Amino acid sequence: MKPVDLLNVLVKNQNVLFMNKINFLTVVGTLCIAPLALAEAVDLTKLPPASSKPNVTFAGDIKPIFEKSCIKCHSEQKPKGKLRLDTLENVMKGGGDGKVVRPGSSDKSVLIVDVARIGDEEDWMPPKNNKAHIPALTKDEVGLIRAWIDQGAK
Ligand code: HEC
Predict the structure, then answer these.
(1) In angstroms, how far is CA 74 from the centroid of its own chain?
(2) Could you tell me the pLDDT band of residue 77, with boundaries at 50, 70 and 90?
(3) How far apart are CA 23 and CA 149, in angstroms?
(4) Do 74 and 143 fall within a single domain?
(5) By alpha-carbon position, which residue is closest to atom 2 of ligand 1?
(6) pTM score
(7) Are residues 104 and 117 in the same domain?
């Protein structure tokens, strides 16, 4: 093999290595972006409207809903998703993936997207076909929780 040929082979191999690197980066990049794309696919226009009720509070309006539909899985020692929904303080703390309520912005609150069941089925709350047979929240209940968050989540 002449030195020039050897050089060509080396350059070719370099290119193959380079291409593999690009492919690898493309694959990794796509994997990173995919969940974001899914999150963006949530159609927020499907959210039930916020209730017009004034002065919605956790103690008076929201706690009874959570006690009926959520507490079974979200309290005490090993709460699901590391999220406790038994006190206002615990709700605001959030779960394993961080905050679930953004005071003032119900449409940006994970909890609302989950209970309205408009996103990924795996995130629906209460979960679809849960063993405790706890049914989905009504549109009025979701609207009341929205109003509570929009009014500052007090
Ligand atoms: C039958 C059990 C069950 C019930 C009832 C239930 N959940 Fe959950 N919840 C789960 C499980 C399991 C997870 C964790 C899912 C995961 O980690 O993928 C979860 C996770 C969550 C999360 C996400 C936590 C995070 O940090 O990502 C939110 C928000 C949530 N639940 C809200 C609620 C609300 C509000 C209710 C009541 C309306 C409710 N859940 C009722 C089982 C339940």
Answers:
(1) 16
(2) confident
(3) 44
(4) yes
(5) 73
(6) 0.80
(7) yes
Euclidean distance between CA atoms 26 and 40, whole angstroms: 20
Is the distance from the beta carbon of residue 97 to the nearest atom of ligand 1 less than 6 Å?
Answer: yes
- The secondary structure of residue 51, as a DSSP letter, is P
Q: Is residue 56 within 6 Å of ligand 1 at its C-beta?
A: no
Q: For residue 61, give both structure tokens.
A: 């309006």
Interatomic CA distance for residues 90 and 79, integer angstroms:
11
Instruction: Please give the DSSP secondary-structure letter assigned to residue 9.
Output: H
For 30-68, the pLDDT digits (tens) are: 665 665 554 567 999 999 999 999 999 999 999 999 999
Q: How many CA atoms lie within 13 A of 16 on its CB side?
A: 5
Domain span at residue 17? 3-41
- Compute the distance from residue 49 Cα to the ligand 1 centre, in Å: 22
Say how many C-beta atoms besides its own lie within 10 A of residue 2's C-beta. 7
Decide: 58 and 148 in contact? Cβ < 8 Å.
yes
